[in-house]
Amino acid sequence: MTAYGFHGVFVRWTGLEGRETVIVLWRGLIGFALIVLIAVAARKTGEFRIKGKYFFLFLCGASITIQTYSGVRAINMLPLSDAVFIIYLAPVLIALFAPLVLKEKLEGRTVVALGFAIAGLAAISFIGNDVSNGSDGLKGVGFAVLSAVSYAVLVLTVKYLRDSMSSLAIFFYQSIVMIALILPFAGWRPPTLDAGQWGSLFIIGAVHSAILPMVYLVVIKRVKAQHMGVLSYVDPLSSTLFAWLLLGEVPGWENFAGGALIIAAGMIILFSSEVRKGEQLPLDAVSVSPAKLE
Question: How far is CA 195 from the centre of its chain?
Fold first, then answer.
């Protein structure tokens, strides 16, 4: 989860501000190539043969495309800590959407958590001078909220698909959909980048889109879901630290106050009665940050 915190830093280091579609495309291409290599090496290409649920596979690919694009737009338009904390509204949204999708009862705890999350969003969005001054800041907040919403849709879709197909197959087909959707907007020619920029793009595609999610799948089998959920919040905290150390973004009190409220909202969801009974509310989707695969 600490490694996920580097995601925003590498996004900035690509130098592709305003060309976020290029980041999404090459992240998809690099991640797809690595997943295929892993499947071939592990002799699991047979898992790519599927029947049915094509709509949900398309929805999975479309939601991760929107989540990734809006997430990197937010990272490039806002202070990194603000963008990541807002994206971490997703666990609360998952709990809010679950009754609609999974026919579960809406708990009072979820409503309380939503109140905390909205207060945290307001603190980050409208109190912090870096965010509230100018239309770019407000647009960045909008992209971060869109990333959180599409992240929640992604997790619920993946949770549904995992009942009938492997994570490897989901990775494979969502990557194909992502590449197909973003290619017309990103252009057909490789971007002109220096070695450092290509290195950052490769790390985003290989590490944050393929390797870390695969590691997460191994870890989640050995660590209690509730514990893993709490540890997931190391991501926004480490993002804040790395932004401070590597990008020179000194967090203000509103960052800490808003982030604390959003974390508190997530903790309310994590320690709800359904989680205590063993029902897992996934906090990490296929990307990451919240890139993060259930």
Answer: 26
- The whole-model pTM stands at 0.82
Are residues 67 and 245 in contact, defined by beta-carbon separation less than 8 angstroms? no
The 3-class secondary structure across the chain, one letter per residue, is: CCHHHHHHHHHHHCCCCCCHHHHHHHHHHHHHHHHHHHHHHCCCHHHHCCCCCHHHHHHHHHHHHHHHHHHHHHHHHCCHHHHHHHHCCHHHHHHHHHHHHHCCCCCHHHHHHHHHHHHHHHHHHHHCHHHHCCHHHHHHHHHHHHHHHHHHHHHHHHHHHCCCCCHHHHHHHHHHHHHHHHHHHHCCCCCCCCHHHHHHHHHHHHHHHHHHHHHHHHHCCCCCHHHHHHHHCHHHHHHHHHHHHHHCCCCCHHHHHHHHHHHHHHHHHHCCHHHHCCCCCCCCCCCCCCCCCC
How confident is the prediction for the chain on average, in pLDDT? 80
Burial degree of 79 (CB within 10 A; 0-12, 13-18, 19+):
buried
Name the percent of the chain lying above pLDDT 90: 32
Please answer whether residues 217 and 168 qualify as being in contact, where contact means their C-beta atoms are separated by less than 8 angstroms. no
Residue type, 30: I
Taking residue 257's Cβ as centre, other Cβ atoms within 10 Å add up to: 16
How far are the Cα atoms of 27, 84, 202 from residue 178, in angstroms, in the given order?
A: 10, 22, 17
**pLDDT tens string 2-37:** 888 899 999 999 999 989 999 999 999 999 999 899
